[in-house]
Write a structure and sequence with these properties.
There is one protein chain. With 192 residues, the chain is mainly alpha-helical. It has a domain of 91 residues. It contains 6 helices and 4 strands. The strands form 2 sheets. It has a two-stranded antiparallel ribbon with strand order 1-2. A hairpin with a 5-residue loop joins β3 and β4.
């Protein structure tokens, strides 16, 4: 937890950087934003290499909207690249206030949002899931791959301590085809 003087200093930096007056939003809304920020912090940490989902620091002040999300590897994720974070909420609220100040001018309203985009502009895809389409490939991969190793779409492996994931396959279309073929066969049998 941050010492109170450091937390107040961080609050001042947040206010200066964003030029956003937290009191322009109700305290209940700011509390909801802080709850969202502290709930999102562990998920953001999981996106960082070498960090667990247990941040070393995770706090937020509903009074000032100052927050601190420091992951187990000592890195603070760039919260401006994500939704459900304080920077995202401040950005969207600033845009909404800008739109209100346009007095119905649609060009002005459009510029409020276009000139100040919120969230990630070019998000990085970190978690990619691939599946194997044939049983022979899956068997060959499983026999050649050591236990607790994941295989990505390029055939590269990376050792992990995690248990292998179960892949769910929807085979309802196979059952539907069987019922359809069975219906045709039964129909022809009745005709003969």
């Amino acid at each position: 937890m941050l010492p109170k003087s450091l937390f107040i200093l961080a609050s001042a930096v947040t206010l200066v950087n964003s030029q956003f007056d937290p009191t322009s939003v109700t305290l209940a809304t700011r509390q909801a934003w802080c709850n969202s920020q502290t709930s999102t912090c562990p998920l953001l940490c999981l996106q960082l290499r070498g960090a667990s989902g247990s941040p070393t620091t995770n706090n937020c002040s509903a009074e000032t909207l100052a927050y601190d999300c420091t992951c187990s590897n000592g890195v603070s994720p760039n919260a401006t690249e994500y939704s459900l974070t304080i920077p995202y909420y401040i950005c969207t609220e600033t845009n909404s206030q800008c739109v209100l100040n346009c007095d119905g001018n649609t060009t002005c309203q459009n510029n409020c949002r276009v000139d100040n985009p919120c969230g990630a502009q070019n998000p990085k895809r970190i978690n990619v899931t691939t599946t194997t389409t044939t049983a022979n490939t899956a068997t060959a991969t499983a026999s050649e791959t050591p236990v607790n190793t994941l295989v990505n779409g390029n055939g590269d492996t990376s050792a992990t301590g995690a248990a292998p994931r179960m892949v769910s396959v929807d085979i309802s279309h196979v059952y539907g085809l069987c019922v359809l073929v069975g219906g045709f066969v039964a129909g022809f049998a009745v005709l003969l």
